Amino acid sequence: MSTHISTDAPQTGLANPELANVEVSGLTRSSFILRGAMAAGAVYGLGAVTPFVSQALAETGGGDVEILNFALTLEYLESDFYNVKGKEIGLKGQAKSYASMFGEQEADHVEAITTTIKSLGGKPVAKPTFVIPASSQSSFLALASVLENTGVSAYNGAAPSIQSKQVLAAAGSIVQIEARHAAAINLLLSKSPTPSGGFDVPLTKAQVLTKVKPLIKA
Questions:
Q1: Residues of the chain by 3-state class (helix, strand, coil), percent to 5
Q2: Tell me, what's the pLDDT at 10?
Q3: pLDDT above 50 (res 191)
Q4: Is the dihedral of CA 180, 181, 184, 189 positive or negative?
Q5: Does residue 215 register a pLDDT over 60?
Q6: Section 64-71 average pLDDT
Q7: Distances (CA, A) of 128 to 27, 49, 75, 103, 148
Q8: Cα separations in angstroms, 89 against 22, 50, 134
Q9: For range 70-78, the mean pLDDT
Q10: Which residues contact 187 (CB under 8 A, 6 or more apart)?
């Protein structure tokens, strides 16, 4: 079954319309959380992703394996974005170099998280099928910026629920790379590589959850 981000808000009024048409197949818990995180980011901005993920993971109660499977689903998306969509677009110059480098690193993240889940006695979640709405280098870079920054916010949301210090350290090492990807892409787009004020400031859970939940269609 194919699922997608669906909102009641007009596409032109979204904070990040690039996220609104990214499709994620399947109805696993991890896919549902990722879909909800992207819905939150699309409608209310990337500051909405952190509290949404934090609350959603707290509700599942699956421990570190559940959190890692969510991270794996996110890394599947980012790996496909660079390694599949990036090649389809026919990127040039620095964008092509970054896509190749970042794609290798996202694939490494997939392998590392998969290995960690197995070492904890868990079962890695199956890879979903993605439909990624990018048809040119400019639209690819715009979506890359949003996806990378979404990833950073999602990892920030997941971190407080991680119980193992080793898993937390591993997640911390990955999110630093995601942040560097985001900064590099932002510079290509002549955007600031860092948030204004020097901090990623999330919305509160109350600001996000009551508004986002009705927008997530099963």
A1: 70, 5, 25
A2: 40
A3: yes
A4: negative
A5: no
A6: 96
A7: 9, 20, 11, 17, 18
A8: 16, 30, 8
A9: 96
A10: 193
pTM value surpassing 0.85: yes
Convert the pLDDT of each residue in 85-130 to its tens digit: 999 999 999 999 999 999 999 999 999 999 999 999 999 999 998 9
Mean pLDDT (the chain) is: 88
Residue 144 CB contacts under 8 Å (≥ 6 apart), including other chains: 81, 82, 99, 181, 185
Place of tokens 């981000």: 5
- Two structure tokens written together for 182: 């985001």
The mean pLDDT of 44-59, rounded to a whole number, is 91
CB 3, CB 26: distance < 8 Å? yes
Q: Is residue 52 within 8 Å of residue 36, measured between CB atoms?
A: yes
Domain tally, the chain: 1
User: Got the DSSP string for 1-32?
Assistant: -EEE---SS-GGG-S-HHHHT-EEES--HHHH
- Structure token digits, residue 50: 């952190």
Contact 27, 6 (CB under 8 A): no
Helix axes 137-158, 165-188, angle to 10 degrees: 150
Q: Identify whether the C-beta of residue 143 lies closer than 8 Å to the C-beta of residue 91.
A: no
pLDDT of residue 207: 63
Please report, for the domain that includes residue 25, its CATH number.
Answer: 1.20.1260.10
* Domain region containing 59: 2-215
Q: What amino acid occupies position 175? A: V
Tokens of 145: 């910026």
